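FORM 7B - TANDEM STRUCTURE REPORT

SECTION 1: FIRST PROTEIN
SEQUENCE AND TOKENS:
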Amino acid sequence: MKKIKTSPLLPQEFVVENISENEANIIAYPFEVGYAVSLAHPLRRFLLSSSQGYAPVAIKVEGAKHEFDSIRGMLEDISEFIINLKSIRFKLKNDETDAEVTYTFTGPKEIKGSDLSNEQVEIVTPDAFLATLNEDATLTFTLKIYQGIGFVPSEDIRDELDDGFIPLDAYFTPVRKATYEIDNVLVEDNPNFEKVIMNIVTDGQIGPVDAFKNALEVMYAQMAVFNSEISVAAPTTVERVDETPEIKKLMGRIEDLGLSARSFNCLDRSAVKFIGEIVMMSEADLKNVKNLGKKSYEEIVDKVAEYGFAVGADLSDEVVSAVKKKIEAE
């Protein structure tokens, strides 16, 4: 018979694995069966669709009337130039939400993303190639750069532009990849709890952890619509306790002590699961465990001593509080 519950287990562990500056794994566990995917999937959608980023929405090239034109002395035509421009990722400085920036280059020169950085704009893909100019070439162009979310096609921008500007498809999202895996994790000998591992890769406009935080904020904001008509109790924040080596040992299970079956069963039937619970007992409390005889008592005291502790040990208030919180969370 399954254990009867009145509420699902709350996940206690949250880990960030920084793989690189623009990639990280976000790990949380343990979840009840089915809960991990229920949270991970919408978070992935919000990461890809609601993360704020920057993109050029229009370009005006001196001497070019449309995207199929060409410029004297530039190897690429305008359409190829625009394709290359899409691989360059911009970030406006000083928290600006839009900017109009003009560049002028003379040949011979191979223009890269790093050449577009100035006091208004930071380029997060400095090695991206843009264009090649011959000796007699001069290239002047103006970009309209905006902050936004998701993808906006050029057709939606065309009517809002000044004469001479060519609309561009705007890829705002700074999240290049957001995937997740669901693994099983053991909780109290039950292997059916779940761990979610979310891998996030960004283009450098924003860090993966900040992108995850923004996705959470958007998710909470979307759900706030229900608060207007339905009174919902505010969720309790799960306090995570930093585990010192001492706390980790105290949170070891009584199985780790290698007790005889009789001693183990006495503790197990009294709902004693962790070594820390024995250490925090007084000698009198341990002796009063139901059906625990003298030999079993002495065995437990000896095994706890071998583990590095003593029954009734004088632990610091911080350690006692931390162990109690973790035991309550189990």
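SECTION 2: SECOND PROTEIN
SEQUENCE AND TOKENS:
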Amino acid sequence: MNGVTAPNATLAVDSNGDGQYDDAVATANSSGIYSLSVPLTADGQDQGDHRLMIKATAAAGVADQSIYVHYATGTLVRFNTTSGTFDAELLDADAPVTVANFLSYQASPAYSGLIVHRSVPNFVIQGGGFTLSDSRISSMQTNPPIQNEFLAANSNLRGTLAMAMVSGNINSGSSQWFINVADNTFLDEGKYTVFGRVLGNGMSVVDQINNLTTYDLKSVYSNGALGEVPLTKAPPTGTQLTGTVSLQAGSPLLSGSGTAFTSELAVGTDIWINSQIYRVQSITSNTEAVLSTTASAVVTSASSWKDFLPDDADFVVFSSIDELLPLLP
């Protein structure tokens, strides 16, 4: 550890919290530059976390400073979100298959636009399942599921990163994971594999996400997994369009009866019809428009809505998940 202090100051370190500054000693040169070697371990209750107290004694007086240091033995990754940034150490040695699986998604475009799609207060936040682009949520394209690597020694405690699974199948983990916001040791019975730990004050960011109000977007996006989505503000309630609309399977043509497409719609407007989201590509008249995609089924004389999707800025989005420090050989 290198730094600058008062010229010729004596520095002493307390690295084990016993109040004794006897774990490392050094003397700064005439320019105040010093170098200290402090022995650290990755063992113990704090799993590599160390709070170092450094005391500098010079002619002008005595000064103390506290420094957080983490001694990592696994891969370090940084989660950059719209709610803040936090770092995690992955447990390469204890869960090599799970870590490799996570890093394969992280290194690919698969996690681009990833969102926190589930948040349960004082329980978990969950990601890895859905991406967001232009107000549209898409399910992840996943790789084959991996083998479960649960270890009883790595319990689902607050701050741990664990694999999500299909209920009843311990070997179903793929792209989804969650962060434990509380000590959820009961999840150990289900063998949810812990493969990482949030570092330092990173849980303050996770807590901030977990404290956001969640909204049920299952019907909006026709997906049963989106019932507890954290948003920074309430989604719009939607505006029902005048008249009724009809669609033919395999056709992009939207027909209306008693509708006012020219005044109520615009090119690019998203509309909700029978639990499906469509986008307007062009408008021919008050009763005819063309959609950007074809209808998957026949729709007859149905109601429709606009202004119902949350803005992209309202979601918690991972702008990137970066590998900071790979596992050393």
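SECTION 3: OBSERVATIONS ON SECOND PROTEIN
Residues 76-232+315-325 form a domain with the Cyclophilin fold (CATH 2.40.100.10).
DSSP finds four helices and 26 strands in the chain.

SECTION 4: SIGNATURE
Preparer initials: ____
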